[in-house]
C-alpha cells in the first residue's frame, strides 16, 4: 500500500470475551496481514469500576482459539508497549497538559452537584444537555487558587464554536458534523485516568496505528478524535466503521437477547473455523467466482485475508443468527475426517468411555451433529442403559400392544438368527421382508425396534446404532422392551 500498515483492536476487560471482539479482530487482522502489516491487541482498562482481572487472559485465549492471535499485545511483546492503558497513565497526563498549554483544553472544577443541576435546567428548557463552559471563563488567578486549594478537576476539550469537522470513512465515504453540536467533553478524569477519547487518540498515535477499523457506534465520536489529532498536530489515521452485529429485532447485539460470550460458543462445541466463516459473512462477502458464480458461503480465514477489501463491506446491520451459525458449524463438522472429529470431541467426552465404541459411534452420528457438545446428548444411550420409557411408546399408530409384542418378538428371532459378523446390511433386508410378512409398513416395524433399542422415537440411524451396540446388547434391549409390553 506504500505505507506501514498497523491495525488494532482495543477491548475493555469487563467480562467474558465478546463475539464483537472476534468480529473486529477478524477484519483488522485480515486487512493488516493482507498488506504485510501488524495486528495489535490493546487493553482499554481505564474504567476500573467494571474491570475484571481474568478478562485479559480470556480475551487472549479466545483469540488464540479462533486463530486470530495478535502480533503485539499484553503477554505477546512488541516495541510499542505497554499495551494496557492503566500502565500508560503518565503519557495521557502529559498530553493533556500539552492541550491545555495550547488552549485546546481546559481544567473544569465543577462539582457533580453543579453539573446535575445544570443538566436539569437545560432539560427543563428543552435544550440539549452540554457543558456550559463555566470553567472556561475562569481567570488564570482563579485557576491557580483552585489548584493551590487542591480542588479536584477534570480536563475538557475546547470544541470549535462554528464550522464543520469532516473525515473520510473507507466504507461510508465523507462524513461531516457541525462543530456547534459537539460538547466540551471530558478528556481526563479527576482520578488522573483518561476517558476513551483521549486515550484512544494518544495510543493510536504513539503505536503508529495506520487504520482505525471499529464498529459504527463510534462514528459520532470520530469528529472529537479528528479535532484531537488536529490539536496535537498529528497525522490522521484512516477510518473505517464496520456495521454493528444485531439481534433479530435489529437492536444492537446484547447478552440480554443473545449469547455474546465467545467462551460459551467454545464450550458448546462450535468449531473456531465455523465461527470465523460465520463472522466473515456479517457485513461482508467473498467476491464472485471467475466464472460469475455466486460468492461461496463456506470459506476459510485464509480466504478472508486474501480477498478482504472495504469496498465489499455493506452498511446494513447484519443479524447474528445462531441458527445460521449452527448450520455452518454442522457443515464444518461433516467436512472433518472421522479421526479428526474423534480428536475434536475429546474435551466434550466424560471419562471412562469405551474408546473403541466412541470411534464406532463417530461416523454414525456425524451427519446429525451440529455442535460438538451435542455428542453425548445424542448418543448417551449407546454408553449406558437407554432412558426409561412408557410401553405405549412401542405401539405403532394403528396398532395395539399385542401387534407390537408380536412384531418385536419376530424381529428378535430374525436378529438372533443373523450370523456374525454383526453387520446391518444383511438384517435390514430380512427385517423388511418380515414387515411384509406381518402386514406392517417397514417404517412401523423399525419404529418399534428403534424405541426398544434407543428408548426414543428419534435417534441416529437405527441399524448403525444396533451394529455399534452389538448383537448381545441389542437382543437384551429387545428383551427388556418385550417385558414392558408383557
Features:
mainly alpha, 486 residues, two-stranded parallel sheet, 8% strand, elongated
Structural write-up:
There is one protein chain. With 486 residues, this protein is mainly alpha-helical. It contains 19 helices and 9 strands. Strands 3-4-7 form a 3-stranded antiparallel sheet. A two-stranded parallel ribbon has the order 1-2. A hairpin with a 3-residue loop joins strand 5 and strand 6. Helix 9 (272-280) packs across helix 11 (322-335). The longest helix is centred in the N-terminal third of the chain and has 16 residues, at 19-34. The chain is elongated, with a radius of gyration of 32 Å. The N and C termini lie far apart (79 Å). The mean pLDDT is 94.
- Note poorly predicted spans: none
Mean pLDDT level: 94
Q: What percent of the residues sit in helical stretches (DSSP H or I)?
A: 40-55%
Q: Enumerate the strands of the largest sheet in spatial order, edge to edge or round the barrel.
A: 3-4-7
Write the layout of secondary structure elements.
Elements: E1 6-9, H1 19-34, E2 38-41, H2 55-66, H3 89-101, E3 105-108, H4 112-124, H5 140-148, E4 154-157, E5 164-169, E6 173-178, E7 186-188, H6 196-206, E8 211-215, H7 222-232, E9 238-242, H8 262-268, H9 272-280, H10 301-307, H11 322-335, H12 338-345, H13 355-365, H14 375-379, H15 401-416, H16 424-438, H17 442-454, H18 462-469, H19 471-485
Helix pairs in contact: 1-10, 6-7, 9-11, 12-13, 13-18, 15-16, 15-17, 15-19, 16-17, 17-19
Amino acid at each position: 500500500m506504500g505505507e506501514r500498515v498497523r491495525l488494532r483492536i482495543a477491548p475493555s476487560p469487563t467480562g467474558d470475551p465478546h463475539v464483537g471482539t472476534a468480529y473486529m479482530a477478524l477484519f483488522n487482522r485480515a486487512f493488516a496481514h493482507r498488506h504485510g502489516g501488524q495486528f495489535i491487541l490493546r487493553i482499554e482498562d481505564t474504567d476500573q469500576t467494571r474491570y475484571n482481572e481474568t478478562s485479559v487472559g480470556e480475551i487472549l485465549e479466545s483469540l488464540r482459539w479462533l486463530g486470530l492471535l495478535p502480533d503485539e499485545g499484553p503477554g505477546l511483546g512488541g516495541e510499542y508497549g505497554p499495551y494496557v492503558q492503566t500502565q500508560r497513565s503518565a503519557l495521557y497526563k502529559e498530553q493533556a497538559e500539552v492541550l491545555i498549554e495550547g488552549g485546546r483544553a481546559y481544567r473544569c472544577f465543577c462539582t457533580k452537584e453543579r453539573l446535575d443541576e445544570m443538566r436539569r435546567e437545560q432539560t427543563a428548557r428543552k435544550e440539549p444537555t452540554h457543558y456550559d463552559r463555566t470553567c472556561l471563563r475562569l481567570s488564570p488567578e482563579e485557576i491557580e487558587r483552585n489548584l493551590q486549594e487542591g480542588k479536584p478537576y477534570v480536563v475538557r476539550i475546547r470544541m470549535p464554536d462554528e464550522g464543520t469537522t469532516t473525515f473520510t470513512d473507507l466504507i461510508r465515504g465523507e462524513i461531516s458534523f457541525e462543530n456547534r453540536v459537539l460538547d466540551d467533553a471530558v478528556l481526563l478524569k479527576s482520578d488522573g485516568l483518561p476517558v476513551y477519547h483521549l486515550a484512544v487518540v494518544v495510543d493510536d498515535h504513539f503505536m503508529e496505528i495506520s487504520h482505525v477499523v471499529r464498529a459504527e457506534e463510534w462514528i459520532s465520536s470520530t469528529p472529537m478524535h479528528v479535532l484531537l489529532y488536529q490539536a496535537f498536530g498529528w497525522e490522521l489515521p484512516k477510518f473505517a466503521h464496520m456495521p454493528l452485529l444485531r439481534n433479530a429485532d435489529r437492536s444492537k447485539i446484547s447478552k440480554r437477547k443473545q449469547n455474546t460470550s465467545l467462551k460459551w460458543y467454545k464450550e458448546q462445541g462450535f468449531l473456531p473455523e465455523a465461527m470465523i466463516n460465520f463472522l466473515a459473512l456479517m457485513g461482508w462477502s467473498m467476491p464472485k467466482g471467475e466464472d460469475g458464480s455466486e460468492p461461496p458461503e463456506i470459506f476459510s480465514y485464509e480466504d478472508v485475508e486474501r480477498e478482504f477489501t472495504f469496498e465489499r463491506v455493506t452498511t446494513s446491520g447484519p443479524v447474528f443468527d445462531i441458527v445460521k451459525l449452527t448450520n455452518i458449524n454442522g457443515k464444518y463438522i461433516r467436512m472433518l475426517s472421522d479421526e479428526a472429529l474423534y480428536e475434536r470431541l475429546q474435551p466434550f467426552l466424560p471419562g471412562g468411555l469405551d474408546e473403541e465404541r466412541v470411534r464406532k459411534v463417530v461416523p454414525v452420528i456425524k451427519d446429525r451433529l451440529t455442535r460438538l457438545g451435542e455428542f453425548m446428548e445424542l448418543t448417551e444411550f449407546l454408553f449406558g442403559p437407554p432412558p426409561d420409557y412408557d410401553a405405549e411408546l412401542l405401539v405403532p399408530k394403528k396398532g395395539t400392544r399385542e401387534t407390537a409384542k408380536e412384531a418385536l418378538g419376530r424381529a428378535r428371532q430374525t436378529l438372533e438368527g443373523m450370523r456374525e459378523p454383526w453387520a446391518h446390511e444383511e438384517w435390514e433386508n430380512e427385517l423388511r421382508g418380515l414387515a411384509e410378512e406381518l402386514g406392517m409398513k417397514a417404517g412401523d416395524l423399525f419404529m418399534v425396534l428403534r424405541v426398544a433399542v434407543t428408548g426414543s422415537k428419534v435417534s441416529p440411524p437405527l441399524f448403525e446404532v444396533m451394529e455399534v451396540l452389538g448383537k448381545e446388547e441389542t437382543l437384551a434391549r429387545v428383551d427388556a422392551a418385550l417385558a414392558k409390553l408383557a
